[in-house]
Amino acid sequence: MSVKADPCSQPSLMHPDQAIPLLLEQVSPVSDTEVVTLPHALGRVLAEDLASCIDLPPFDNSSMDGYAFRFADLNSQTEHTTLTLIGSSFAGHGFEGEITPNSCVRIMTGAPVPAGYDTVQMQEETQAQGNQIQINHPKAKGANVRCRGEELLQGTKVLKAGIEIKAAELGVLATIGVSQVRVYRQLKVAFFSTGDELRPVGSDLAPGQIYDSNRYSIQGLLSRANVEWLDLGVVADDPEAIRHAFRHAASQADMVLTSGGVSVGEADFTKQILDEEGKITFWKLAIKPGKPFAMGRIGKAVFCGLPGNPVSSMVTFYKLVWPILNKMQGLTPKAPLMLSATLTTPVRKQPGRVEYQRGILSRNAQGELEVAITGSQGSGMLTSMSLANCFVLLEQFQGDSPAGTKVTVEPFNSVLC
């Protein structure tokens, strides 16, 4: 049986994998930087390499609660040795006395190992009778001791420019005593929706009208992207209104992002106004949902035009706009995680465009990855995004796939999770 081609596909449409590098060539990272304190650094992009100004750990310390001693004092002819307790070492309050032969000190996790001692035995492997401590021999000298500089030596590069500062990086910076860091300034993104049919959430709907959901989805996506955003609302399908909105947005932002108006309908004026006010370099890709995607410039701002259908808008943001924002922020690019999983539900697809169907990825009783399609994959069904935790990637010219087929899945990252 022959398989019909996607009626929206065209031989001239570009594969998204080919388009993304070309899209990225058109943008440059911001060059402006600022210094922020650690509490304000979360989610920002580091603008310079950072080296440690101290050894880490800064002193030999214990990784266990127990007793510290000299390994050489252990009796090599027996399995345990009794040592004399001469003091204690606590975190922040180390032992300050002089060590003596065949002695030990009580030590807590993180406490300094007294100079001259080289080994710690955990408390569970000792027995105490007064100040006489029986040590069950550890396997080797240096057991349970975290040595000075074993994680980082002073001058070692800790973090590289171009990384996003997350919780772990904040902890690393605090550990080496860094109180403020130089980061790239945040991008500013202005966005609006176009369409006479769109009404604000909470208002009454007249026949033929719908609520404007895309702006809320875009706002959430931009918030996850750690940019400053400016919501310019809904702009009517009127050339002069759209022209004014473009000029206003471009004067305030690094990127202008629109939803709707990039199709081929008689009332879709975005492309017309951009041809007059700016420049479009991309229009339409072989992607489903989301074929009517546009990119260009308006003034000094980058322009990205998303489709009006809610799912198409989110998919094209995730697959196309997100990499552009990452580069503009100065982030080092990372390839998305791709996994192989077995379909538990059949998939319908017409050849012609790369499809990102919404799926639910899980493990079966055998620990194997499997994925189920969320249901109907219509580009207006936003609940399919809410139910999903991954995209099921279907290549451009493949057709239907029965249950049991191995497919490639892309788990959602922090932008959509």
Automatic annotation (TrEMBL):
Asked if Repeat is a keyword of the record, the answer is no
Give, as in the UniProt entry, the pathway in which the protein acts: Cofactor biosynthesis; molybdopterin biosynthesis
Record EC number? 2.10.1.1
- Show the Pfam families listed in the entry: MoCF_biosynth (PF00994), MoeA_C (PF03454), MoeA_N (PF03453)
Question: Signal peptide location in the record?
Answer: none
Q: Name one GO molecular function term.
A: molybdopterin molybdotransferase activity
Q: Which reactions are catalysed by this chain?
A: adenylyl-molybdopterin + molybdate = Mo-molybdopterin + AMP + H(+)
- Indicate the segments forming the MoaB/Mog domain, all copies: 190-327
UniProt keywords (A-Z) are: Magnesium, Metal-binding, Molybdenum, Molybdenum cofactor biosynthesis, Transferase
Q: Which cofactor does it need?
A: Mg(2+)
UniProt lists the family membership as follows:
Belongs to the MoeA family.
The UniProt entry, under NCBIfam families, shows: Glp_gephyrin, molyb_syn, PRK10680.1
Functional note: Catalyzes the insertion of molybdate into adenylated molybdopterin with the concomitant release of AMP.
Q: What is this protein called?
A: Molybdopterin molybdenumtransferase
Q: Which organism is it from?
A: Shewanella xiamenensis
Lineage per the UniProt record: Bacteria, Pseudomonadati, Pseudomonadota, Gammaproteobacteria, Alteromonadales
Write the gene name: moeA
